[in-house]
Write a structure and sequence with these properties.
The strands form four sheets. A seven-stranded mixed beta sheet has the order 4-2-1-5-8-12-9, with helices on both faces. Strands 3-13 form a two-stranded antiparallel sheet. The longest helix is centred in the N-terminal third of the chain and has 18 residues. 42% of the residues are buried. It has a domain of 223 residues: Vaccinia Virus protein VP39 (Rossmann fold). Helix 6 runs antiparallel to helix 7. Helix content is 36%, strand content 17%. A hairpin with a 4-residue loop joins strand 6 and strand 7. The protein is globular. The chain is an alpha/beta fold and 379 residues long.
Length: 379
């Protein structure tokens, strides 16, 4: 699983408990990201539709949600042979090496050359086949294991991370049995529309701030698109990210409340589960009001550690620390809305299951765990 800001790793057991208690057989994850939640629901036996607007999330969804190991084209021996062949390829420097290893420092050049060679081979040998999204997912995850960032690709580390010295090595993704779909598109366009259709349970984890996920993870977007785009700034972002056309209504404080309200109202689902936190643009009262159109509302709250970047601090483009950490923890909300009997049963099941597993301490380390990041300053 690639590093992703906003990952719901610790909330997955709660979401699984909610899905089971709801009695749902079908579900949609409308802002699927890494597909972590969609995978958990599929693993529980639900037929899942994973939705996202980013190229990266769509590839992950096509691998983990839409693919089924029962497909002969995805048999274990077939996948193992394809991954072994890709791992045997010699490095061949290209766009990734030039852009993300020389002009910037996301990967060491030897791994960049391997990424170039493997990505080219996936396109030339597997495009249009069921293997394409699975092998591309394998490459994305392999590259993530040897990158030199704190997770976000708005920045890279001033000094090479220890993991960046490891050789790139692809692994066979663990596919999940069962039916599922991947839809690439805007939640505003798909919710309530014929492409999505009705489901028993809808899970919503919308963006919480102005930062676009395709900008936060622009290296993965370029690896998927494989289009050698022009780039700008220290972080070598895709130049098309400067266009306002690609901005989501969920990335603006002005437009986000209406966008969320519209999705909550129009998505065809018996129960809606909305994930949010107390650092975002809507208050707890606004969340209640937004979801009350679906019926009875219950809110579950969980203490959570903030993103690792919050513990490192604020740095200038030269890598000098220029700010202090304001706080290390926040509160994650799960808002449940729907039929009163069902929603109360779901909330009761979670409360009776007890607290979340303990997270690692968020106390600031004596010294930064990684070198100071170099941040991108858009031109």
């Amino acid at each position: 699983m690639i590093k992703y800001l906003g990952s719901k790793r610790r909330l997955v057991p709660v979401l699984e408990e909610l899905a089971s208690a709801s009695g749902a057989r079908t579900a949609v994850d409308l802002f699927t990201g890494t597909t972590r939640v969609a995978q958990a629901l599929k693993r529980r036996g639900l037929e899942v539709t994973a939705v996202d607007s980013s190229r990266t999330a769509d590839v992950l969804a096509r691998c983990y949600i839409a693919s089924d190991p029962a497909d002969p084209d995805l048999a274990p021996a077939v996948l193992a042979d394809a991954v072994a062949w890709l791992n045997s390829l010699e490095g061949e420097p290209g766009y990734v090496t030039e852009t993300f290893c020389v002009a910037s420092r996301y990967f060491r050049p030897e791994n960049g050359a391997r990424i170039d060679a493997v990505r080219s081979a996936i396109e030339s040998e597997f495009a249009g086949t069921p293997l394409w999204p699975v092998l591309l997912t394998s490459l994305l995850e392999a590259a993530d294991r040897v990158d030199s960032t704190t997770g976000l690709q708005m920045a890279y580390l001033k000094q090479w991370a220890d993991r960046s010295y490891r050789p790139l090595a692809l692994r066979v993704p663990e596919l999940l049995a069962g039916r599922g779909r991947a839809l690439r598109g805007d939640a505003l366009d798909l919710a309530g529309g014929p492409r999505l259709g009705p489901v028993d349970l809808a899970y919503l984890d919308p963006p919480y701030n102005q930062h676009r996920y395709d900008a936060n993870y622009h290296v993965w977007e370029t690896l998927v698109a494989w289009d050698a785009p022009e780039h700008y700034g220290v972080a070598c972002k895709r130049v098309d990210l400067r266009s306002p056309d690609g901005r989501s209504a969920f990335n603006s404080r002005r437009t986000m409340p209406d966008a969320l309200d519209r999705v909550v109202r129009t998505v065809e689902a018996d129960v809606v589960v909305l994930s949010y936190n107390d650092e975002s643009w809507l208050t707890r009262e606004q969340l209640d009001a937004c979801c009350s159109v679906r019926g009875h509302v219950e809110v579950l709250a969980f203490d959570s550690a903030r993103y690792v970047g919050a513990r490192i601090g604020i740095h200038s483009p030269a890598g000098e620390k220029v700010g202090t950490v304001s706080h290390l923890r926040n509160t994650e909300y799960l808002v449940l809305a729907g039929d009163r009997t069902v929603v109360r049963r779901m909330a009761r099941a979670v409360r009776e299951a007890g607290p979340l597993p303990s997270a690692p301490s968020a106390a600031p380390p004596a010294a930064p765990p990684t070198p100071s990041p170099v941040v991108d300053v858009p031109a």
